[in-house]
Design goal:
Structural class: alpha/beta
Distance between the termini: 43 Å
Strand order of the largest sheet: 1-5-4-3-2
Oligomer: single chain
Helix content: 25-40%
Length: 442
């Protein structure tokens, strides 16, 4: 997107801030070469943030909430564009769209600013993020022979100038010892982190329980609970296969495929694996998606498997055990080295979102006599009994970042939903986490 509105007079209202962010967003994985214009635009903001204490996890990063008025409907000047692409039909529809996009009097932005220095004290790089949008990630010295990517310097310059009063307001509130109270009382819940017990969610919305149980029988749940209770899922009790082959692996894959309903008739064992796996098989079949031209191995020779397992040239270049992408991985582990006896066993790893597929594949492969463990088996049972928690993710945060910051007392959380999707009936059941208080540098 190219910045054309160089002459436009932007106002400190959320639609204008969002428009400028859209021109600047470069994505977290990209960086640009610093220029005098970029550095000159961000330096005043960094200076305003100087009194703010850095976050505890990284002393080069500062975070603070800023608030920007949503403005009036007249400030949301997107009617013609939205109508042209069919997202709105008339002005009333446009007004409803504005209320959906800006439901509160203020839109809040989590501002993250980063500055890293060389050991000699010189600035090495800097960045700024607003509600998960990386608007700048700049380095003082380009570290490759490539030309820096095009960056909308003027849009960034206007953005920094536009949000300066909002940043100053938050710092002043903090200095007056009013900021943390304001956040505690007024930050909308759509920006807050929380959890809800799955059983409480089921009471409020029974259809969520139906979704969890879809395709999973009481017998499957009973069997899984029995396996866990008996210790049969423990890796030190599931047995080993001493002379393991590629076809053993492919056979286990086929059993899992059949259990989850994949079409298997008419395919050989390796063909099935190639058909349904990630295909970056690190040279196992010779027919996968590989960065090297390799012939594959003898599928019936245990020594060929051992050689591939311990010495494959492409190790860590692919995903040979991602056998059912989107559902589960089927890992092969071993208790032996080249000089010690032992054996191989299987380990199935999958997401709670794919309970039916994961549990079905696990039980089928186990019934076929393979030594196999299911990672997180207890958590699958907890989710089926409603004993675990579902994460409530704030709208400005990714699920991965959210999960990384959860208190340990709630256990590992795999299922999440965004806070702007919660319903009134759930609200009193949600455990909301307080925002970490901001502090000034002492």
């Amino acid at each position: 997107m190219f910045f054309k509105d160089v002459e436009k007079e932007y106002k400190l209202v959320a639609p204008d801030v969002d428009e400028l962010i859209s021109f600047c967003d470069i994505g977290a994985a990209h960086e640009v070469l610093s220029t005098p214009t970029i550095l000159g635009a961000i330096e005043p903001l960094l200076e305003i943030l100087n009194p703010l204490a850095p976050i505890r996890r990284n002393d080069a990063i500062k975070e603070i909430w800023i608030r920007v008025p949503r403005g009036a409907i007249e400030d949301y000047d997107d009617f013609e564009r939205l109508k042209s692409i069919g997202e709105v039909s008339d002005f009333d529809d446009f007004y409803r769209q504005w209320l959906r996009d800006y439901p509160d009097e203020y839109k809040w932005y989590r501002l993250i600013a980063v500055r890293y220095y060389e050991t000699n004290g010189k600035l090495r790089c800097y960045g700024m993020n607003l509600n998960e949008e990386t608007v700048i990630s700049a380095v003082m010295k380009w570290r490759s022979f490539n030309e820096p990517e095009y960056f909308e310097e003027k849009a960034f310059e206007k953005l920094c100038k536009l949000i300066t009063p909002a940043v100053m307001e938050s710092i002043k509130l903090l200095q007056d010892d009013k900021y943390n109270d304001l956040i505690a009382k007024e930050l909308p819940y759509r920006y807050r982190k929380g959890v809800i017990k799955r059983s409480d969610l089921w009471i409020a919305n029974p259809e969520y329980k139906e979704e969890v149980y879809r395709g999973i029988s009481d017998e499957m749940i009973s069997r899984l609970k029995g396996i866990i209770a008996s210790g049969e899922n423990d890796e030190d009790r599931i047995g080993r296969i001493r002379d393991f082959t590629a076809n053993d692996f492919f056979r286990a894959c086929k059993i899992g495929y059949e259990a989850i309903g994949y079409k298997c008739k008419g395919f050989s064992l390796p063909e099935l694996y190639i058909q349904y796996s990630d295909r970056r098989d690190e040279g196992l079949t010779g027919r996968g998606v590989n960065p090297y031209d390799e012939p594959g191995i003898d599928f019936d020779d245990p020594k060929a498997w051992d050689e591939w397992y311990f010495h494959r040239k492409q190790r860590d270049s692919g995903h040979p055990f991602e056998v059912a992408p989107g559902y589960y991985h089927l890992y092969v582990w071993q208790d032996k080295t080249e000089s010690e006896t032992g054996g191989y066993y299987l380990n199935l790893v999958g997401s709670h979102w794919c309970r039916r597929e994961v549990i079905s594949a696990y039980l089928a492969i186990k019934d076929a006599g393979f030594p196999i463990s299911l990672s997180g088996a207890e958590m699958f049972v907890d989710s089926l009994e409603g004993a675990d928690y579902i994460g409530i993710v704030p709208v400005h945060m990714s699920e991965y970042e959210f999960i990384d910051q959860l208190p340990e007392e709630f256990g590992y959380i795999d299922d999440c939903m965004y806070a702007d999707g919660i319903k009134d009936g759930w609200f009193d059941k949600i455990i909301w986490f307080p925002e970490e208080p901001e502090e000034l540098i002492q």
